[in-house]
Design brief:
The complex is a heterodimer of chains A (about 290) and B (about 280). Chain A is α/β, with parallel strands linked by helices. Chain A contains 8 helices and 15 strands. Chain A has one domain: Carbon-nitrogen hydrolase (Nitrilase/N-carbamoyl-D-aminoacid amidohydrolase). Helices cover about 30% and strands about 30% of the residues of chain A. In chain A, strand 3, helix 3 and strand 4 form a beta-alpha-beta unit. Chain A is globular and about 50 Å long. In chain A, about 45% of the residues are buried. The mean pLDDT of chain A is about 95. Chain B has a 4-stranded parallel beta sheet with strand order 3-2-1-4, with helices on both faces. Chain B has a single domain, classed as HUPs (Rossmann fold). The N and C termini of chain B lie far apart (about 50 Å). Chain B contains 12 helices and 4 strands. The model of chain B has no long low-confidence stretch (mean pLDDT about 95). In chain B, strand 2, helix 3 and strand 3 form a beta-alpha-beta unit. Chain B has about 280 residues and is mainly α. The longest helix of chain B has 22 residues. Classes of the chains: A alpha/beta (about 290), B mainly alpha (about 280).
Chain lengths: ~290, ~280
């Protein structure tokens, strides 16, 4: 079975949810017309990134708000991955990415690793998610990560142990540390990470980063898709509005997993024992 | 000339100029339109910083999107005005000339003994005042032209040349601005000029600062971008006097890089725990 995917490298408007929803629905309609099965928007695609005190003002309660309902409705024709600020009943705000499927929110991932260093300040505004879970989708068992989550190898590893075949990573990665190299610094690191994770966990990696500007930051784009072999299938440039099309093929996934049965041979019990031992030693009270 | 044994060579300051141009022109266009404008005004001094800023703005907003404002004082070097005019002509942008001598001289007529530093600051703020006034006439934003070296060393006049609505070159060291100038095809007359605020005759930046931009940019990159300590700078071979002077200048000018300090009284205070992005809803 093959799945047509669009990586929608948009630049949302900071704090203007109605305008962003309209942009999502326009992109969704266009992707449907192009015969796509899945469209992926970047991290916090409905709100923008540098929200600061706008976080509570942009938050969506549960799944009942008009924004999420509109995306759910649109997902009758095509699966949609988008990002927003979620408020829990306990008034905790999460940086959340969700997958809308067949008219409903099928899965949601709350960002676990909130970067709070250097130029980032997410820990001030958001609560951390506490789980990594996969879900069943028409194109295969899927896991989702938000930006910094991907830089912790254990995140992808855990999802893979639960049977993940497709990893969706959404981000708002900015340009920093510019030097003389031909591509924005960081681009090579993101692509390298995606290739390594795809190859070693024998899964697809679909990465969507935003583009555009906020508060003097420029977001680097460079969305990509990597096959389970580690081969880069498609790669975007730096511009806002790029739509990167890619087709997933589950026969390729089977072929790679047969040739490289790395997941089959993984020693989960050994990993758990060793982690328990290390954690116990680290946190033992003297 | 110090010869650092390691850390921060001139190569570390090299940029992918094409990519930086793409980001900065995108930034200027995006931020100008977000403010509901289509134009910027830029004070063109004849120096390399304002030349690069103007050139980027021209590429971002087009010929009609940039108005160059030339504001000589009677002591300004004649080449400053000429080079600024030549650049405006080459870019095909409108250039306005306002002599600030009458305003500055009227003010100091009552205080003829004022120091040249006071006069220099006054000129800088007079230019700022003219720029903001012209920005209303042209329905434009004021484009900043302070580079990273000046910002870090505090080598600028607060509310004068440091004032602007958006600054495309504030994260580029002086040597990187020069690299951009070359990439953008700015004339050698401007690129090779000895850097000067041109506030009094024979003033040059490097004489006033006591070191060259080539040197201090490498030291700043070590101390700021690479988070190097004073000890690591000394170990790398930088002279103690220069390291301490640079660190002192950075510390003493910190106030210039911040909004005015507000005494906290209420539950929520502007800039403290009332934090909204400037680009909110745009």
């Amino acid at each position: 079975m093959s799945t047509k995917v669009v990586l929608a490298q948009i630049a949302p408007t900071l704090g203007d949810l109605d305008r962003n929803l309209k942009m999502h629905l326009d992109e969704i309609r266009r992707a449907v017309r192009a015969g796509a099965d899945l469209i992926i928007f970047p991290e916090l695609s409905l709100t923008g990134y540098l929200l600061q005190d706008l976080v509570p003002e942009c938050a969506q309660e549960g799944e009942s708000g008009p924004l999420l309902k509109a995306l759910a409705r649109a997902s009758r024709d095509i699966a949609v991955v988008a990002g927003w600020v979620e408020r829990t009943p306990g008034s905790v705000h999460h940086n959340t990415a969700g997958c809308f499927l067949n008219g409903r929110l099928a899965h949601r991932h709350r960002k676990v690793y909130l970067p709070t260093y250097g130029m980032f300040d997410e820990g001030r505004y958001f609560g951390a998610g506490e789980v990594f879970r996969t879900f069943e989708a028409p194109w295969g068992r899927t896991g989702m990560l938000v930006c910094e989550d991907f830089w912790h190898l254990s995140s992808s590893y855990l999802l893979a142990q639960e049977g993940m075949e497709v990893l969706i990573v959404v981000s708002n990665s900015p340009v920093k540390g510019m030097d003389a190299s031909p591509a924005p610094p960081g681009k090579a690191a993101w692509l390298g990470l995606g290739s390594v994770v795809a190859k070693f966990l024998t899964c697809y990696v679909l990465y969507v980063n935003r583009a555009g500007y906020e508060e003097g930051w420029s977001f680097a784009g460079g969305s990509y898709a990597v096959a389970p072999s580690g081969k880069v299938l498609a790669e975007g440039g730096t511009k806002a509005g790029e739509r990167i099309a890619v087709t997933l093929d589950d026969t390729q996934l089977r072929r790679v997993r047969t040739a490289y049965p790395l997941l089959r041979d993984e020693k989960l019990d050994l990993v758990r024992r060793e982690l328990d031992r290390i954690a116990e030693a680290r946190y033992r009270m003297e | 000339m110090p010869r650092p044994r390691r850390a921060s060579t001139a190569d570390d300051l090299k940029l992918n100029a094409r990519l930086v141009e793409e980001i900065l022109t995108g930034f200027i266009g995006d931020e100008t339109r977000r403010a509901g404008m289509e134009r910027v005004v830029v004070g063109l001094s004849g120096g390399v910083d304002s030349a690069v800023a103007a050139c980027l703005a021209r590429r971002a907003l087009g010929r009609r999107g940039v108005v160059a404002v030339l504001m000589p004082y009677r002591h300004s070097h004649p080449s400053s005005l000429k080079d600024a005019r030549d650049l405006a002509r080459k870019l095909g942008i409108q250039a306005e000339v306002f002599d600030i001598s009458p305003m500055v001289d009227a003010w100091y007529a009552r205080d003829p003994g004022a120091s040249r530093v006071r006069r220099g600051n006054k000129m800088s703020r007079e230019r700022m005042s003219v720029l903001y006034d012209r920005s209303v006439v042209h329905e434009a934003l004021v484009l900043g032209t302070s580079n990273k070296t000046e910002l870090l060393l505090g080598y600028g006049t607060i509310h004068g040349d440091m004032a602007s609505s958006l600054n495309p070159i504030g994260d580029l060291y002086k040597t990187q601005v020069r690299q951009m100038a070359e990439h953008l095809g700015i004339s050698a007359a401007i690129r090779r000029k000895v850097p000067s605020a041109d506030l009094w005759p024979d003033q040059t930046d490097e004489n006033e600062l006591g070191f060259s931009y080539d040197e201090v940019d490498r030291l700043l990159q070590l101390l700021v971008d690479q988070r190097g300590s004073r000890a690591s700078a000394l170990e790398a071979g930088w002279p103690r006097g220069m390291v301490d002077r640079v660190l002192r200048m950075m510390r003493r000018s910190q106030y210039k890089r911040r909004m005015p300090i507000i005494a906290k009284i209420s539950e929520r205070t502007v800039g403290v725990d009332f934090r909204y992005p400037r680009d909110w809803g745009t």
